[in-house]
Amino acid sequence: MEFAIGGRGPGGWAGAFQAASRKRRAARVAAAVVAGVAAVGGATYYWTQQTECDAESSTQLESSVNNDVQALIERQRERSVALTAASPERSLREHRSTGASVRSGTSRSGTSQSAAIAISRAPSMAALKSIPSDAASGRSSVRVDRKFFSQLWRFIRIIVPSIRSREFWVVLGIGVTLVIRTRLDIWVSDNAGDIVKAIVARDREAFMRKCVRDISIMMFPMSFVNNILKLQISLLRVMARKRLTLYFHELYLSQLTFYKATNLDNRIQNIDQLVTQDVEKFCTTLVNLYSNVSKPLLDVVLFSSRLARSLGAKGPAVMIGYFILTSAILRKLQPPFGRLTADEQRLEGDFRLCHSRLIMHAEEIAFYGGGQREKFFINGTFEKLLQHMQRIFMARFRIGLVDSILVKYLATIVGYCVVSMPIFFTSGFVRTLLAPLGGQKLIDQNKQADAEDAALVAEMYTRNSRLLISLSAAIGRLVLSGKELTRLAGYTARVGELDSVLGDLRRSQAADSHSSLDAIAKLGLEDVELRAAMVPGRLVDNVDFVRFEHVNIVSPDRILLAKDLTFEVPPGTNVLITGPNGCGKSSLFRVLCGLWPLYGGTLYRPPRSRMFYIPQRPYLAIGSLREQVIYPMTTLEMRSRNIRDEDLQKLLDEVHLGELSRRRNGWDNVCDWSDVLSGGEKQRLAMARLFFHRPQYAVLDECTSAVSLDVEGYLYTHARELGITLITVSHRPSLWRFHEKLLRFDGHGGWTFTDIKPEDIPQLTGINGESVAA
């Protein structure tokens, strides 16, 4: 008697149930094997990425510290040149005071004052130590909190200003490309399973179709997607850096913010590194985090969805659970390698600075016979570095033991256990279902069918192993993205501080209020005179004369250089300023030009466009000879005003530099003019620049100290002929005859403003204008 259900008898029904059971068991076996392999692979991936991330962090920190040290060395070298140019007889003494604060009685005038300020701001050994440690503390103390997300959102709005911007469409394109790439990864896994199935089943036609035809068709779109994603990420990095860098350039290079940030405000150091390096690192980390988080999230969602349709959740759950547990244990036991690396780089910087100081001050050390003392100090610094490196090696040894046990051996045991369970422990549920239909006989038949269904097992194993290992890698990247997020928080904090300070300085009178009102609040009760002197003054910059009315000159380090300064410089009246070093001569110019805060009374002056300043060491810009003469005007502006090169040639002839334009490439010659020209040629070129602009007032700060007396006399005479009113700082008595007024500082806050009488000039200069008295 036939018992039929759906057209089948008991044998047909049992065969169908047997086939379905084979597929389920094959799926479970493949899932178990893949889960074990994926657990090992996932943990190994985490450790590999963790090691690479630590190495990358160490490399970036080492590069940052090396750049900091190199910047300090360059600043010390520039300070050395400045000191030598300002006063050769004092350079040796000043060099020995590197890093020391300038006392109240030291130089504050002219280039010597600039050098003194440079010394007070130049980082010493302690300052160098604070750079890496601060960086480390910044990285360890930053938090992924509301402030971080607020700053990050502000910068994202700067980088992506609107949905119509190019940056927005690039961001959107990256997201679409990531989705396509994940779908292609799933196709690759499915296709790999089909290829293995065809190989095991010896199906040549299926193999040629899946391996040769399908891959040949898909390799072009897959290659295109992979490379277009790299291109989009690279473009977004460049576009983000461009937006953010131009934003900071606008803040930093307008309204004298660059001067205020480096000379009047001490809230941030190494602005050059922040603008050039930290902004780039912030943009790179932000874009990388976007791609490194978006892709794993898509992978987790799509891979899990694909696996759920074929395996269920048991295999991935075992793999994910072990992976998360291993990651948590490793993270809990891992030493603070970030802090240890920061300390190592700090000690490396100390050791490097010791040798740099030895090179810079070799002559002074040789004079003192301090070779043994320096060797003792350098060896001590090197010994500290070696001891710290040994501590790092021992820490890595201890964590390496735990890593090897968890990642390699224990993971292997767990994987083998997961693999063996379906083999050694047959499912009781299957036994119960098959017992009424033949019991042990059907089980034996099922074993034979398993051998026949090896192709199905191989297919499912290959496909699902790829998906599960890719899923473990995606989870690993998500876990590691937490470290990237912390690194991004560190860069965001540094860039956010730069944005805050530059924004404060750019706002109206921000620098004055910060450097004066805050400074007044910090003064003690005993500084009554200084507190009274640091009352903000009033500026009137729409007149055609210069007048100081009860103005107090106070340095940024709160030293009263001159008090109740009152005098007037009408057009056509040249004023000579003299006095001892540190009395406030150059400080007067800084107040006049708006570089230092105005205190006390009222300052009347013409607009800045009608004033010109020439320091002792003229600034020579990057560019051609033409651009040196017309600076800060550009060549396009010069052409628009119908100014020809012949006009510039006349200016060079007047300052005895006509041969410069006749050299190779003429006016278009581009070179490092600071190295090409001598000191006297630089000063004469600066005077040609003055004659080109022909301002109403010119402030000359020892600007002809390297020029011969006869050429100097001609330059001052020609400036008077052009109608330029001169305010000059100089110790040369030969210049008295070109001025009508004398402003003399006594070095104790006092001053006098008198006429220069003609009968006094012969006592100071000879017949040919040569100095006979100092």
UniProtKB/TrEMBL annotation:
Biased composition (Low complexity): 98-113
Cell location: Peroxisome membrane
Main location: membrane
Source domain of life: Eukaryota
Any single Gene Ontology cellular-component annotation: peroxisomal membrane
Topology versus the membrane: Multi-pass membrane protein
GO molecular function: ABC-type transporter activity; ATP binding; ATP hydrolysis activity; long-chain fatty acid transmembrane transporter activity
Domain ABC transmembrane type-1 as annotated: residue spans: 215-407
Keywords linked to the UniProt accession: ATP-binding, Membrane, Nucleotide-binding, Transmembrane, Transmembrane helix, Transport
The keyword Nucleotide-binding belongs to this UniProt entry's keyword annotation: yes
Region of interest (Disordered), ranges: 80-113
Database matches in PROSITE patterns: ABC_TM1F (PS50929), ABC_TRANSPORTER_1 (PS00211), ABC_TRANSPORTER_2 (PS50893)
Domain ABC transporter: 546-774
InterPro entries registered for this protein in UniProt: AAA+_ATPase, ABC1_TM_dom, ABC_transporter-like_ATP-bd, ABC_transporter-like_CS, ABC_transporter_sub-D, P-loop_NTPase
Transmembrane segments annotated in the record for this chain: none
GO BP terms: fatty acid beta-oxidation; long-chain fatty acid import into peroxisome; peroxisome organization; very long-chain fatty acid catabolic process
Record-stated family: Belongs to the ABC transporter superfamily. ABCD family. Peroxisomal fatty acyl CoA transporter (TC 3.A.1.203) subfamily.
PANTHER family: ATP-BINDING CASSETTE SUB-FAMILY D MEMBER 1, ATP-BINDING CASSETTE, SUB-FAMILY D MEMBER
Annotated protein name in UniProt: Probable ATP-dependent transporter ycf16
UniProt source species: Cyanidioschyzon merolae (strain NIES-3377 / 10D) (Unicellular red alga)
